[in-house]
Amino acid sequence: MVLLRRTDAPWARSLGVYFALAGFILAIRLFFQVIMGAGIGQTVLFRLPELHLPAWAAGIRLGGAVTAEALAYSLYDALRLVVMLVCLGAANALANPRRALRSVPAALYDASVAVVIALSVAPQLIESTQRIRRARRLRGGARTGWTAVVAVVIPVIADAVDRSLALAAGMEARGFGRTKRDGPPPRSLTAALVGGMMLLVLGAFLLLNSADVVATAVACLAVGAVAVGLGLRAAGRRQGVTRYRPDPWTARDTGIVASGFAAAAVVIVVTQLNFAAVHPSTDPLSWPALHPGFLAALAACLAPLMLAPAPQPVAEGVPA
User: pTM for this one?
Assistant: First the structure.
């Protein structure tokens, strides 16, 4: 999806770094499982020299038998984090997070700016590293060794500081943070937002943990949603946020979002109907089975290839 629909933007080339980081996390997780993992299962693959620990360190081992069951459990556990990391990298490679600010409600503008800046840190660092390494190669600089690492890290840090100062100057020039009304927000507005969020959390907790209080949970969710909605609407009136060339929401966008929800819904339904299909057994060890529902989820994930057009390359010298 990323390779076929990414643009020529510098951050679109950051997916490979996320895959490298994911592979490093997977290798580290398996390494610690081999060295210090729990010795579950009966299928011994190989044995390491074992260091016997005192009684107060019960449950911890160094070396010993390495079983296929323990490795499979660690592999499944590490793949969860790896997939989330790769999905985050795919989102950063495909989308420009700054454009999301155009559709954020005015009341959430401050928080959304912080989120956008946080999501932009990794792609910007990767872009800076690639640009500086390319410049060093053109100048005949060293490509390997500790000298090359130091020569790249320092310019990357300096570039990050320069970008931060430029961003702060731009936000100051545009009057970021100013409101239509002076003074702190009224206490009633703060109480409505805080109370609504607490009711939403309480309702979700009751709904997920107890089947006897479904009516109470739904009531908490409804009252909390109304309180949060009214609070956000009142808070938005205090912000003087304008939108420059807002992105229109089209039927194609609706189809792309619906395909994502459809894939998630299929996985949730399959999990409820066949838990073993999503969580294969590791003790006793068994091959994971492909449930037919996952093919439907995969088809929903591939739907944006037909809905979203291929990006057009930007001509040299023409601004995007």
Answer: 0.62
